[in-house]
Design a protein that fits this description.
Main location (chain A): membrane
Family (chain A): Belongs to the TMC family.
Subcellular location (chain A): Membrane
Strand order of the largest sheet of chain A: 1-2
Strand content of chain B: under 5%
Number of strands of chain A: 2
Number of helices of chain A: 23
Structural class of chain B: mainly alpha
Oligomer: heterodimer
Shape of chain A: globular
GO molecular function (chain A): mechanosensitive monoatomic ion channel activity
Shape of chain B: globular
Number of strands of chain B: 2
CATH topology of the largest domain in chain B: Recoverin, domain 1
Membrane topology (chain A): Multi-pass membrane protein
Order of helices and strands of chain B: HHHHEHHHEHHHHHH
Number of helices of chain B: 13
Radius of gyration of chain A: 37 Å
Order of helices and strands of chain A: HHHHHHHHHHHHHHHEHHEHHHHHH
Amino acid sequence: MARLKEEVEEKKKLIATLRNKPWRMKRRLQNLKEAQGFVEKFEGALGKGKGRKLYAFKVMMAKKLIKFNRDFENFKTACIPWERKIKEVESHFGSSVASYFIFLRWMYGLNLVLFGFMFGLVIIPEVLMGLPQGSIPRKTVPRDEQDTAMDFSVLSEFGGYFRYSVIFYGYYNNQNTIGFLKFRLPLSYFLVGIGIFGYSLMVVIRTMARNANEGGDGADESEFTFCWKLFTSWDYLIGNPETADNKYASITTSFKESIVDEQENQKDENIHLRRFLRVLANVLITCSLGGSGYLIYFVVKRSQDYAKMDSSQLSWYQKNEVEFVMSLLGLVCPPLFETIAELEDYHPRIALKWQLARIFALFLGNLYTFLFALIDDVNEKLEKEKVIKNETIWALNQYYANYTLYHNVTQNIPLPEIAPADVIRGPCWETEVGIEFVKLTVSDIEVTYLTILIGDFMRALIVRFLNYCWCWDLEAGFPSYGEFDISGNVLGLIFNQGMIWMGTFYAPGLMGINILRLVSSMYLQCWAVMSSNVPHERVFKASRSNNFYMGILLLVLFLSLMPVVYTMMTMSPSFDCGPFSGREKMYDVVIETIQNLPPFMANIFTYASNPGLIISIVLLMVLAIYYLNTVSKAYQKANMDLKRKIQMQRDEEKNRRNNKDSTNQVMKDLEDLMPNKSLIPPPAAEEPANPAPPSKSPKVTGKAGTAATGRGVNLQRDVSLAAANPRGPVTRPPGPRGPGPLPGVGRGHPPGPGRGRGRGGPPPLR
Amino acid sequence: MQIRLYRNCQVEQEGEVWFALVKFVSARNKDESNQRLCRTNRTNNTMGATASKLPKDQLSEYQELTFLTKQEILLAHKRFNELLEREDRQQIGGSRVPMNKILTLPELKSNPFRRRICQVFSTSDLRDGSLSFEDFLDLLSAFSDSATLEIKSHYAFRIFDFDDDGTLDTGDLEKLVNCLTGEMDNTRLTSEEMKQLINNILEESDIDKDGTVNLSEFQHVISRSPDFVSSFKIVL
């Protein structure tokens, strides 16, 4: 009975793994029908007895679950957008260009979820259940701004009505609960702000782990260069003849280059000159990085001065100087770095890595300088706020004093009735920060689109049509068509995401703007790539580039987390705008909520935040990391060991076949000790080169077995070569060793009783 | 209608380009499956010619046995139908498509291994590389996104084994290199370079030093490669 059940289970497992077997469809169909028939026949039989109904029910539920899973998978794949578009790009440009678009689509998915959080938990409650526009001071445009509030120039700076809307932090009210659902908006705002980072972190790490599993385990890059070039360099997604031709050319070039590399000796070149040039190049680049950082700081400071001046006297350039300069630096510096890098004369792959590192440093430096300048600004505003707050309190006291004088009442004095538009306002610093980030993002979008339109499309138009009346061949010569710059675009995408992460806490509407940007960018770039770009001439990818870009994304996530957490922890919120107004620090809202919880939960929190507990948890995690690291190193060592053993084994065999002289030192030493001078028996007649791959395994182990049967010493060779080849289907059971595959040839002498492997009794003599 | 400004594309006359430019910029992207450049009038034939549909139980069996999703199997069915002669369309289960027709598929047209692929996946007794529908599904399943590394490396090995003897010996490797370097004479490697290349390859991958690469050595090399799984893909 139990055995029957086992067999049914086995058949079920077979059905589940049928698609993994490299058989023909006919054979698989046959097996499937057999297994299914068997299962159905005996499943009913198994159910006889007490638990029959329950068993049948369980079986039915299992079947339905499998079907449901499969339908769900189908549905999920049907929901993935832009599949056709990306496939088209793939067939024309190969998989490396398409990987950018796949990354863009992944970003879109991530941002969609974050937008869902922000929109559903923060914006919608405020809009639906909060006070309407114009009812309280923070939601109203001040009196003196009202006549310019709808001007396009003001709106394009995100002032006017935009500033006092749900897009920015300042709009939100600080009531503890709003609406009939008693929704706690300040708490929700804070938690969503933190939750955005938490969710992004989780998703990025999960994707990195998945990529790491598929990408193979840390094999050395130079270990299999030729083999990989030969076996894996063709991209099967290419469906376009020109791309195919390009690919042929690049493969040939790479073969020729690597052959030459292998052959040539170390060139006798001037090492000192090279080193000097490299140092010079690095110095130049550091200088330009420093220069760009200083430029940004200078420009931000200047813009603060401009902000104090009357805005009608400033030109457009002066008002948008910061964004303009930052975008310009982002456009000009990377080609500059590439030109300077010509001095260094590295291998292209290493040069690419240096270039990416430098661009990364550039963007980081720029962003952080920008942030420092902004924080200075914020501190200034906080000072100003104190002054205004004092003024307001003073004015209120005056009002109370007057009121008391007039009406002779000292208690329950009603608040002064001022229209919300006339109330004195503080300089809400969070909204200012939010506006800066939104302006930066928008200008970045504009610059990207302009670059695509002018740099790629216009260029292609000019090259195509001006070629008829130009002196030299524009297509082959100087401008020619542009290639799609994968790394530049991916880095741009990553840094944009970093800015979004930084700015979302202060401008909830920024997520929506980002979603629009990603969608339009996908369509625009797909169109631009197909119409104006050519496939790459040289194709070399930074290996494991998927995880490389994910790693940068993770780094950017941490770097953008830091400023937000810093401002949350140290700066006090404005007193009259935003959901945290009136509190000392922003995280006070969480502490208040915890204190208001029922007592036993408050107790749990108090115990959990005990420093002793936290320190011990941190220690535990550090130990776990150390342990896992050690285990992984041990696995790698075991791998190397096994490989070496295989190598040694084969060397041994080959030498025995050739000249009967052992190359293994251990064997040599033992031989010298032995009286008979040779442990190795005369080789059995050569086995015919067995063509079928699976029999390699028994053939190999067979020979190892024979080597162990000595005239005296039985060496325990515990290398189990069967473990090294798990993939070949085992066509014969691991039978007795020795002259297994050779039925017709006798052995030299009867084998000894102990075979050194403990595999059953002595083999039958054939 | 998609235009490409790059010279060797299908846009012929000048006037057409400008007109097409205007039309394109103002038009919306319609059915994108019609926009591949080298498309013939195949799409017109599909209207009303798909008389045979895939029965539901067969569909679910195929889903069970391959790595393809339902939509992919249906799409494969449609495309396979287009390749069949009109009179064979009713009986899609038994009929075979000759190799030269399979090679007109845009996904295979530019592939240097297209003939080997057809021969490896073909179960025809005449060894002529013709594929039945089930062979076609096998092909797509092995080349699909969700196929495992084992399946892909198994089939890759068989595709590269030009003489079908179960190992990749020097002759196979030479033919492989020649396929990859294109058909033009000026792109081929000289015999010196070829010898050097093959030596290097055998040095790297031949663990048991018998002068050939067998399946397990091949799989050992391939499993370490980060690019193999993502490049060994064909999607309809």
